[in-house]
Each structure stands twice: as structure tokens, then as C-alpha cells.
Amino acid sequence: MPLGIRIFLVYFLFVGLAGWFVLSTVMDEIRPGVRQSTEETLVDTANLLAEILRDEVKAGQLQQSRLPELLRAYGQRKPHAQIWGVEKTQVNHRIYVTDAKGIVLLDSTGTAVGQDYSRWNDVLRTLRGEYGARSTKEDLSDPDSSVMYVAAPIMDGARIIGVVSVAKPNRTLQPYIERSEQRLAWLGGGLIVLGLLIGALLSWWLSAALRTLTRYAQAVSAGQRAELPSVRGGELAQLAEAIEHMRTELEGKAYVERYVHTLTHELKSPLAAIRGAAELLEREMPAAQRQRFVANIDQESARMQQLIERLLHLAQVEQRQGLEEHVAVPLGVLVDALLHAQMARIEAAHIKIENHIASGLSACGEAFLLRQAVANLLDNALDFTPYGGLIRFSAERLDGHIELRVFNQAESIPDYALARLSERFYSLPRPGSGRKSTGLGLNFVEEVMQLHGGALHIINVEGGVEACVCLPLFVAR
Questions:
Q1: Where does the pLDDT of residue 2 fall: very low under 50, low under 70, confident under 90, or very high at 90 and above?
Q2: 272, exposed or middle or buried, with CB in 10 Å at 0-12, 13-18, 19+?
Q3: Which of 173, 174, 153 is nearest to 164 (CA)?
Q4: Distance of alpha carbon 456 from its chain centroid, rounded?
């Protein structure tokens, strides 16, 4: 299972459980919280009525007062109040008054006058001097039919002369409870979903950063040229730098070891030739034969020097991860300079040169590397062009880049060799001498093109061979 999914699942489990626990706990507290708030209001109301009714109860004139009429009028009121989105269309308080023995003197509903309420907890406890309250179901089969009663003593000095009770059905509180639960459920659910989205984004970011570092490590292990990815985040950035440092250390060791083996292998043949010629020169021989062996030593020494120089150039290019400069390199001027440097060789072979590169066409890159790459292409073309043949340079702008083509008259390259021409140390015999080169020139060109974001292609065309390189176009700012 991918690491990002595992991180998200752990986060989902933690946020889901925490959210469910908090949400369920708060939901469970809504109902008792609303009832506690209502009970506190009933206490205030009962005590206020106790003070209002004290004189009438003390004088025994409660029934003769206007209070029964006022309570009936109160029960018929239609408030039409909008309370937090819930419409209240009727009053719900029931008020009754008992004497010191618990006999009902006044009832707002008019149903309990004269009855003995002394055993109900609200009246019983209040008459004892305690806090009197009770909750009683009007219908035993209906759990939502309970009514909350809160009582307050009617005092004559220190003596309790009666009790006033205020009642409120719990079902009248249900709309407010349901509305609060619904709002809380939506808000809680939204917060949980938002938390999960944040967790998903965090998991995606972490896994994306790790995938980027993984691809970089895989590219490096495959020997590909790869730039260190830009990763944000303290630990991830440190990990990227550690991987880059490890790559540099390991690549340097492996690179040196590989090139030591390569150089050793490639130098065996010329060293053997030089040693054999030196041993023969110790003997007596004709001057012409001696001169031939001396020339052979000189030729093999030059071959060794060329091999070492090209290996050093190739090693420098292969270890680089990017260009040191991005400047305008006029291709026409560059090719003219290289042709002038090779003019003696060109004239000796009577080779015709055509340079069709426009004067204002410039590539963007590192001038030294581009010069070395084009010089290798020219050397390769000169090696294979027959006496009196043609070499033609051309270039054109295509979709933000430049295609530079080097054509030379020559025999077609065999199909089996086309795919291997840029392979290190692979070389075809030269038409004139039959000897092979170091096989590093085209490999160097390919490495330079990759550094510039381009490519090298060599194909057979009518009348010869064409090498094509793709380079970025320089755009003046």
C-alpha cells in the first residue's frame, strides 16, 4: 500500500474517531443543557410569582382577586414570536398555587382546584423548606410527554404559607433541541470533511514529494542525468540534500573506477605496439625499416594522447548536471571558425565546403561545449568524406529550437551500426586508412546535446550521411 494512502488512512481514523467522539458528546449534552436552562428560568418565574401572590394568599382572598382571570387570559395569548428560526404561537406555562397543606387554591388550567398536591415532590419538598422540582409524564407510554415542575415557597416572614408551582412541557423545547442538533451535525460533519480534505492534501503533498525524490534516486541509479528536485519542507529538503550528497560521493567513486578500467583497457593496444617497436629498434636493421618503427611509435603515442584528452573531456561533460552559462552562440560564425582551423586538411583532400547557416541564427547555450561538439562532427565528417567530396552545413529554426545539420558525401552506414554510433568506444574503420578512432567523439556530442536539452541523430540520406543536432534557440530579451 502506498505511503500516502497509509498516512491518509491513519489521519482519517484519528480525525474520524475524534470528530465522532466530540460530536456525539456535544449532541448528548444539548438536550440536558436546554432543559437546565429552562429549569433556571422556571425558578426565577416561580419566585417572582411567589412574591406577587403573597398578600392574596396571606389574606385568603386569592379566589376573589383578579389572578384567576389574569391566568385565563395569559393561557389564551398568541405570541407569534420567531425564536432562532422557530415560531412560538402559544404560551406553555401552567401555574398552580397551594396552601400550607398542599391543597390547590388556584390552577391556570382550572382542573386541579381543591385537589391535594401535598405528595407531589415540587409541593412536598418546598413545604419542607427544600428545593422543590419534579418531572412527570402526562402519558406513561409517551417518553416525550414529560412536564417539568418547579416550585417556590410563598413566605410570611419565616413561615411558609403556600407554594406556587410553574410547569412547562418538555415537548415545547424539542424544536429548539432538534434545530441545535441539526445545526451541530452539519457544522460538525463539515469540519470533519474539511479535516479529511486537509489530511488528503497533506498525504498527497508528502507522497508527491517522496515520489519526486524516488524518481530522482531511480534516475541517478540508472546513470541518467537528473537535476536535484526542489522540495519544500525542512525534513524533506534535508533528505533531498542528503540524497544529492550521497549521489555525488558514490558517483564520483564509481566514475573514477569505471574510467580507470576503461583507460587501462584502451591503452593496452597502443602500449603493446610501442613496446614491440622499441624492442625491435634495439636490433640492427635498415634505416628505412627503423624509420617505419619510429613512425609507428609516434603514431601510437599520438593515439594515446588523443584517447586520454577525449576521455577527460567526456568525463567533464558526463559529470555535469547543467550548463554554466546560457549565452548566444552564432552558429554561422562558429562553423566558419572551425572550417578555418581545418583548412589545411580540407584543401589537402580537395573537399568542397558549403555553409548555408544564416548569419543571424544563434543557439542558446555554453559556447565552449558547443564549439567542441560541432568540431567533433566536423572531424567525423572529414574522416569519412572521400577525396574531392562535399561537406555541407545548414540550420533552420523550428518551434523555438534550431536544427543544425552536417551532411557529408560518403557510403551509407550499415543498419547494424546506425544505432551504435554514439556508443562509447564504438567506431567504424576510416575509408582511407582502415583504422578506427577512439569512438568517443559522437558520444561526447550526444552528452553535450543532452546538457542543452537537445539530441543527436545520424541518418543515411541520398548521396551520403547527415548528422542532425537539436539546440535551443537564443531569444534576445
A1: low
A2: exposed
A3: 153
A4: 35
How many Cβ atoms from other residues are within 10 Å of residue 246's Cβ?
Answer: 12
HSE-CB at 348 with a 13 A cutoff on CA atoms is 6
Specify if 269 maps to a domain.
Answer: yes
The per-residue pLDDT for range 12-46, each reduced to its tens digit, is 677 777 777 776 776 666 677 777 888 888 899 89
> Measured on CA atoms in the order 279, 282, 288, 291, is the torsion positive or negative?
positive
- Tell me if 71 is assigned to some domain: yes
Lowest average pLDDT, out of 179-193, 239-253, 296-310, 389-403, goes to 239-253
Domain tally, the chain: 3
CATH of the domain at 132: 3.30.450.20
Give, as one character, the DSSP assignment of residue 144: G
User: pTM value?
Assistant: 0.43
Q: Residue 442 in contact with residue 422, Cβ under 8 Å?
A: yes
- CA separation for the pair 192, 195 (Å, rounded): 5
pLDDT average, residue stretch 156-174: 86
Structural domain harbouring 366 = 323-472
Taking the C-alpha atoms of residue 377 and residue 387, their distance in angstroms, rounded to an integer, is 18
**Residue tagged 554514439 (cell numbers):** 422
Whether 349 and 427 map to the same domain: the answer is yes
Pairing of strands 464-472, 390-398: unpaired
Per residue in 239-259, pLDDT (tens digit) is 777 766 666 655 544 444 554
- Residue in the block written with cell 605496439: 273
Q: Mean pLDDT throughout 426-445?
A: 69
